[in-house]
Design brief:
- This protein is mainly alpha-helical.
- It has one domain (about 10-70).
- Helix content is about 65%, strand content about 0%.
- It has helices at about 10-20, 25-40, 40-55, 65-70.
């Protein structure tokens, strides 16, 4: 599914400057920016570490259980 967003021309120009290759899409640039932001977010890192600890303690949910809980 695709969504159209409106951005100012200045921001579009900045995104164009960030392209590593001419063929790189805006979606790829935005994904990279989101990944970078998440990797710098201390709260996000703490959540990952907590989930790893839970996994080691055996606190997991099977895919089937998750599907049932979410109604999929």
């Amino acid at each position: 599914m695709y969504t159209t967003i409106r951005i100012p021309g200045v921001l579009k120009h900045r995104l164009d400057e960030m392209k590593l290759q001419e063929s790189e899409s805006y979606a790829e640039i935005i994904e990279d920016l989101i990944e970078d932001r998440l990797s710098l977010n201390p709260s996000f890192i703490a959540q990952i570490e907590e989930r790893r600890k839970e996994h080691k303690r055996g606190k997991t949910v099977s895919l089937e259980e998750l599907k049932k809980e979410t109604g999929l």
